[in-house]
Amino acid sequence: MATAAAPATVRGVGAAPLAGFAAAMTLALFAALRAPAGTAVLGLATFGILHNVLELRYVAGRFGNVLAGPFLKLLLALITGIVLCRLLPPSTGSRAAEILLAYGLLAVACGHALRRRPALLAAAAVLLPSAAATSLAFPGYHFVVLAHLHNLVPLLFLGEWSRRLARGRAAFLAAQWCWVLAVPVLLLSGALDRWLAAGTATTGRLAAAYTPPAWLDTSAGLRFVTVFAFLQTMHYVVWVWFLPRYAPDATAAFERRAPVLRGPRAWALGIAAGAALAVLFATDYAQGKALYAALASYHAYLEFPVLLLLVLGLDPAERNSSASR
C-alpha cells in the first residue's frame, strides 16, 4: 500500500519564505490591478499545466494513503467522466452531467472519509443531494464558486504543512490569510479601484466565468476578474515555488511511487506540455482554454478527499494507517 510522506519538524519558517510571499503578493496585486485580463490569461498559459503536474506530485506524495487502491481508481473514473463532459460542446446537458459527477465524487469521498463517523456520514447524505439540487438549479453560480474556491485550496495544504513548524506558525498562517482573504476583500469592496485599470473586451469575456450572474452587468465584474487574476497568481506561487522548495519529503515520496518522474522529469513534463498548450492558446484561445479546463479536472478533483479530511481536522496519514491495520 502507498504511504504518505512523513514530514520532519523544523524549527521555524525563517525569513526567506515570508519575504517571498510578501514580494509575490505585491507583484501579483500590481499585475492584477494594472492588467487583470492579461494576468489571468498569460498566467494560465505560462504556469497552468506546470502547476497541475507539480500539484499532483505533491498531493500524491504527501497523501499517498488517501489516493491509492480501488478508491483512487473510482475517483479517476468519475473525474474522467467530468473530463469528457468538458470536452463536449458546452450545453445545458453537459453542464448538468458535470455537476452530477462532481457531487458523485463528493459522495464517494465522504463515504471513504466518514465511514467511521456515522453521524457525519448521515449529515453528508442529507446535505449533498440538497447542494446538488441547488447547483443544478443555479449552474452559473456553481461554476463561478468552483473557479474561485479552487484558487483558495492552497490555504488548507499550507495549513497542514505548517504543522511541522516548531515556531513561527502564526506568522506564516497570517501571511497566507492576508492573500487569501484580506486582499480579495479590499478588491471586492472597491477600496483599490483608484488603481484598477479600465476594463477591456477580454475582461468582459472573462467576467462571465468569474462573476456571480446577478452582478455580471455591474462594475463588480471587473473586480471579480481582478480577484481571480490575483488569487490565480498566488495559487501558482504556492505550487510552483513554495511547496516544491519547502516540502521535499512529498517529492521524495512521489518519486518512490512513480520513479519514471524522478528528479527534473516532472518539471520537464510540465514545461513541455505547457509549451504545447501555450501554442494552442496563441492560435485558438477558446479551444486551448477548453482543453486546459478538461485536463485540469484531474488535479482539481483529486484534492477533494484530502481536503475533506483536512477540513474535518483529521490527519490523512494517521487515519489511513490505522484503518489499514
What does this structure look like?
- With 325 residues, this protein is mostly helical.
- It has one domain (15-320).
- The chain has 16 helices and two strands.
- It has a two-stranded parallel sheet.
- Helix 2 packs parallel to helix 10 (220-246), helix 3 runs antiparallel to helix 13 and helix 4 (92-113) crosses helix 15.
- It is globular, with a radius of gyration of 20 Å.
pLDDT < 50 runs, ≥5 residues? 320-325
Q: Could you give a short account of the major beta sheet?
A: 2 strands, parallel
Oligomer: single chain
Label the structural class.
mainly alpha
Strand content: under 5%
Sum up the structure in keywords.
two-stranded parallel sheet; 77% helix
Topology:
Layout: E1 10-12, H1 15-34, H2 36-62, H3 69-87, H4 92-113, H5 118-137, H6 139-152, H7 154-161, E2 165-167, H8 169-189, H9 201-210, H10 220-246, H11 248-257, H12 265-283, H13 285-295, H14 297-301, H15 304-311, H16 316-323
Parallel strand pairs: 1-2
Quick description:
The protein is mostly helical. The protein has helices at residues 15-34, 36-62, 69-87, 92-113, 118-137, 139-152, 154-161, 169-189, 201-210, 220-246, 248-257, 265-283, 285-295, 297-301, 304-311, 316-323, and strands at residues 10-12, 165-167.
